[in-house]
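Lecture 7 notes: from sequence to structure.

We start with a single chain of 412 residues. Read the sequence below before looking at the structure.
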Amino acid sequence: MPLEFHLLEQGEHRPVKPIPVYHLPAGRTSEVDISVALHALHADTSGNVITVVGGAAGAQASDRLSATVDGAVRAARACNATVVYGGTASGVLEAQGRAVRQAREGMRHAEADIPLVAVVARGTVTTRFDNAPTEVNKDAAPLQADMDLLITTPGSQFGDESLAIAQTSGIMSRFDRSATLLYNGGLITKADALNALTVQNPHDHVLFVVRDSDRLADEIAAVHDTGRPSNDPIVNRIAFDPRTLVVTPDHVEHALTDHLGAPVVAPRPKPAVPELNPSVQLRSVHSAAAGLTAMNIGRMTTSGYGRRDALNIRDNVASPLVDPAAHKAWVAAPEGDRIEALDRLAREAGTRADTMTPSQAFRMGAQLEYWRQHDYYLDHAHPQRPPGNATRPRDTSRSTGPHLAKTRGRSL
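Now the structure, written as tokens:
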């Protein structure tokens, strides 16, 4: 059977992810065969598609690469687009999959629907499939860990999947629009670009070439910008096609959303986790503890009080631990942004704990646990209370407690 479920390894500390895989048999790689595969995988074939092609080994991590893949993710979310890519854990393909994962982790579940569809030649990946044994390329790469659906094509050479990528994108966007994003790249990416311009709908498809991403992309951009042909007829054909546009990394989101039909929304400012009031001392003995131990003591000290203060603030009782303006700004931020900010703080805490003074580590641990408890209570544990309560007077004594001691200008 060409259809199987594969358990995809997602790296250390991440659960194994089951994904459906469809193996195109040898000699069965036409658009009809790919349509059958997409139907078997229950893929959505009625929306916008962004196809990402480019350097695998040749694209190095950089701010330009991050800006490109992050812009593609924001455009995919704004335009309800599926992202189609080559699906190996290298270069721009790895960066694009990772950017989708990070966006999913920072969004509410309902907002996090950015389908990621991979198309690979079976012999170019180190993964072995039950239903499709094949010869393996000596330079085979692992599968990228964040895909949702996978189509494999026959072949053990990189590039054997190139036509199927373009066909997959064309079929999935047949009722809407599609765009191909080209970053960096070499000979295989040149075939990807030519196939995209040849196979996909000529009225609704644009090839965006990212300037200053090196190699093939910059060759195409130079010919496109100057109008002077190069010695490579395929580069000339791509550059002079009216559907080819050159963009900078910072312009990727705008270009994609403008073509796919969604308005560009200015990115929301990312909230920072508010610091606890430095004029309030948290009672604990931690001065002799090492950094990580002091941080854990801080977390234990505030455990439970974030929830209590969330209830107090709902009852219009201010907490001495929190600046009212900072609290108001924090709770006004989307839940996904707050989760992302807390995750950043947790990562910072894990890497910096042993370089901090005990007092700094203790304060950061207290800050992290306080807001984690507060937000869980605020967002999930209890429904919103109506203002006022005629049957039970508010207990303002809850805003302080044995865990807090007022001090004058004293901070940890």
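The chain has two domains: 3-260, 280-406. Keep this in mind for problem set 3.
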